[in-house]
Design the sequence.
């Protein structure tokens, strides 16, 4: 019923910038909290940033001051502006969203994940 598709991942040099996008589609009534997570090879998936429907943000300590999450509610799209990238930021980045959707005349809420977009930062 709902799909999340990330884009914008790339290979970049340390100190560079990237902007990730996550577009939600489907029978969406509203999108509540959205967030970014990442998973490096051999490591657990970790939370990076979160943003409420009203635009309030929260960040993991290791990205504070470097990453900025934003969203365009009209486009059902989440963004992550990543500046001053470090090699340790190399990971597969996923978006997550709590979505209220309609199906069969009713409304339901589900938690959805995208497939991920690869960010690689070279030293």
Sequence:
């Amino acid at each position: 019923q709902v799909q999340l598709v990330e884009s914008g991942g790339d290979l970049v040099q340390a100190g560079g910038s990237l902007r990730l996008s996550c577009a939600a589609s489907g029978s969406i009534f509203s999108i509540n909290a959205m967030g970014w997570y990442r998973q490096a090879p051999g490591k657990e998936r970790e939370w990076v940033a979160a943003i409420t429907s009203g635009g309030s943000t929260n960040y993991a300590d290791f990205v504070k001051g470097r990453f900025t999450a934003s969203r365009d509610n009209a486009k059902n799209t989440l963004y992550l502006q990543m500046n001053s990238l470090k090699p340790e930021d190399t990971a597969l980045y996923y978006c997550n969203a709590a979505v209220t959707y309609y199906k069969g005349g009713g409304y339901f809420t589900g938690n959805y994940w995208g497939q991920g977009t690869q960010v690689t930062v070279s030293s």
Observations:
- The chain has no helices and eleven strands.
